[in-house]
Amino acid sequence: MQSEGxxxxxxxxxxxxxxxxxxxxxxxxxxxxxxxxxxxxxxxxRPGHTLQATALVNEAYLRLVDSSRVEWQNRAHFFxxxxxxxxxxxxxxxxxxxxxxxxxxxxxxxxxxxLVISKAPDxxxxxxxxxxxxxxxxxxxxxxxxxxxxxxxLDEKEIGHVLNISVDTVQRDxxxxxxxxxxxxxxx
Length: 188
Hints:
Blueprint: H1 4-16, H2 20-43, H3 53-65, H4 75-96, H5 125-138, H6 140-151, H7 156-163, H8 167-187
């Protein structure tokens, strides 16, 4: 029996090769996962937020479909790019609403239980984005590990595959990045 990951990889490659039916099948296969990611992000927003999970996933998906020049490697690569797009959409939306300023009504975004850094107050999305951008300037790979894990929902093995590093390296990078981000968000 074929795994979901290999099926998605085959569909991505077929789509990259010009098979429009592969795109239709890919949409059916990945939409639920993208929607779960979007609901996770939107759950951290204030009640009554004007951007809804369905709109977020649709916007991200439209941008992914428009990425016809991308040479898709596999399922993990697809979801990594989806995570980057959702992060950009959410942060751009928050910035456009001025919600990152003091007193803004952006609810705090928390790392889910598997990603918890500490019991300190949770960072807002814009602060987290700024901290990740600062980390990327110092150590791009560690920032990618955080983005893939937090925004992409990828596990350590998938992250290792996307970044072409060992699971042990992913774990070390994740641990170091968590400490660095914690310090950055606490002092920032």
